[in-house]
Design brief:
263 residues, alpha+beta, Four Helix Bundle (Hemerythrin (Met), subunit A), five-stranded mixed beta sheet, 11 helices, 52% helix, isomerase activity, isomerase, Maleyloyr_isom, MDMPI_metal-binding, Maleylpyruvate isomerase family mycothiol-dependent enzyme
Length: 263
């Protein structure tokens, strides 16, 4: 039976293969275009994904070999090396760095997937392979969208990633949500499709997911992939499909965009 770690690793492989095919066709002008991550051009997104792949790989190797997570000096050195690359070098090395990481995930045996605990390079408890792979899938899926939306304003997250990322959205909301973006407090019912889920969004002193409320202040209905893009700040009106609706007398979609300013 395939478990969550296996499913996430398969999604990472599929996402990498698709993005690699796109990147290999990029021209110098393509790499210089402003990405969906507004402060970065396309090559800088690839740099971020490439340096991140090296850091994730070092964390896995540290757990397997018992040497621990990479020190901050090592991480800063990785960032500096990628920052110094030309745009074309970033595109080239993005492929090799991410291929090495995904192959490392794929090569882990059943025992490692079940029992390995991996120290992170920031303050947080160690995670298992599924947890680490889920972190990487979130990062990879959103930044893939940042690249694809440059040429396709209607770009979406892949269905394979969406089904997996929905299950870990609560943790992301704790990081991205800004309760101060809403003038007041509200609890919304959220109904997403493809796949279908129903739950609550509570915006008070903090932002969190809840069980579906019985008497909500409004009802947000949206494709699941747009809901995920909303909480990650990839929600501009020009990238919002027509089927997104918010029935509320007090909260608007622009209010929710301020609650989730992005990263």
């Amino acid at each position: 039976m395939t478990d969550r770690a296996d499913e996430i690793i398969k999604a990472l492989r599929s996402g990498l293969d698709d993005l690699t095919a796109l990147v290999r066709g990029f021209t110098a002008d393509d790499l210089a275009r402003r990405s969906g991550a507004s402060e970065w051009d396309v090559s800088q997104v690839l740099s971020h994904l490439g340096s991140g792949a090296e850091i994730f790989l070092a964390a896995i190797d540290g757990a397997v070999e018992g040497t621990g997570t990479p020190e901050m000096d090592v991480i800063k050195g990785i960032w500096a090396r990628w920052d110094a690359m030309s745009r074309s070098e970033r595109a080239e090395h993005f492929v090799t760095a991410n291929e090495a990481l995904v192959r490392r995930f794929e090569e882990l045996d059943r025992s490692a997937k079940d029992d390995l605990r991996i120290e992170l390079w920031f303050p947080a408890p160690p995670v298992d392979v599924a947890g680490l792979a889920g972190m990487r899938l979130s990062e990879f899926a959103y930044h893939t969208w940042d690249i694809e939306v440059v040429s396709d304003p209607a770009a979406t997250l892949t269905p394979q990633a969406v089904a997996l990322l929905l299950d870990q959205a609560g943790g992301l909301i704790g990081f991205t949500g800004r309760a101060g973006g809403l003038d007041g407090q509200a609890t919304l019912a959220v109904r997403v499709t493809s796949p279908e889920r129903s739950f609550g969004l509570d915006v008070r002193d903090s932002v969190s997911l809840t069980d579906a409320p019985g008497t909500p202040d409004g009802v947000l209905t949206a494709p699941a992939e747009w809901w995920l893009r909303l909480i990650a700040g990839r929600h501009a009106p020009e990238h919002t499909p027509a089927e997104v609706s918010l029935e509320s007398g007090t909260v608007t979609l622009d209010d929710l965009r301020r609650v989730f300013p992005g990263f």
